[in-house]
Amino acid sequence: MVKVQGNRIINKNNMLIKYDKNNDGKVQYVADVSRNELEVDKDIMVLANPEIAKLPNWVIALVAAGGLAAALSTAAGLLLVISASVSHDLIKKMIKPDISEKGELIAARLSATVAVCVAGYFGINPPDFVAATVALAFGLAAASFFPAIILGIFSKRMNKEGAVAGMIVGILFMLFYMLKFKFDWFGGGTKEDWWLGISPEGFGTVAMIVNFIVSITISKLTPAPPKEVVKIIENIRLPNSAGEATH
Prior knowledge:
Layout: E1 2-3, E2 17-19, E3 26-27, E4 38-40, H1 44-52, H2 57-95, H3 101-124, H4 130-144, H5 146-154, H6 160-182, H7 204-221, H8 227-237
Helix pairs in contact: 2-3, 4-6, 4-7, 5-6, 5-7, 6-7
C-alpha cells in the first residue's frame, strides 16, 4: 500500500495511468484485480522513453513529428488503396461495369469514409496495446492476401477460384479465432483454451497455412487459368526487356 504524497503522481485521470480508484488517498498495488488500484498501460513506455533518457525537448519534438508523419502517410496510402479497390476493382469491374466516373468517385469517397470511421473506432478502443494490435493486423493480412500473392507469382496453375476460396477461408478462420479469444465472441475463452497454445496475435501463421492448402487444392480441382494469365506470370518472372542471362 502506497500513500500519494504531493504531486509525485500526476494526471490521475490519464488513460495511461490510473490509480486510487476509491479516492482514499492511498494506492493499493496488489495481485488481486478487484482490489488493485494501480494500472499502468503498456503503451506509456513509448511516450516515457524520451523523458527517461533525458533527451532535449527539440529531439522529442522531432521524434513525435516523424512518428506522426509516418502514421499519416501510411494511413493516406491505405485509404487510397481501399477506396480504389472498392470503387474500381469491386464495383466498376464486377458489380456495375456501366457506372459513371462520378458514381465511381462517390463510391470511392464513401468507402474511404467508412474506412476512416472503422479505423477511428479501433484507434479509440484498441483490442490491445500497440504491438499486439499490429500483430493482429499482420495476422489478418497473412491469412488473406499473402498466399494469393505468392502462389499467383510462383504457380502457373493458380487460378481465381483457388485464390478466392483460400482468402475467404483464411480470413474467416483468423477472424473467428481473433474474435473468440480477443473479443470474447462465440463463447470466448481464456489463455488456457488457446488451440495448441497459440495466441490470437500468432494465429495468422496457422490461418495462412490453411489458406495455402485450400488455394492449392481448389486450383487443382478447377480449370487452369487462361493462357494470357500464364503469359503475365511469365512476364513477371522474366520481363521482355531483361535480355539474355550473363555469367
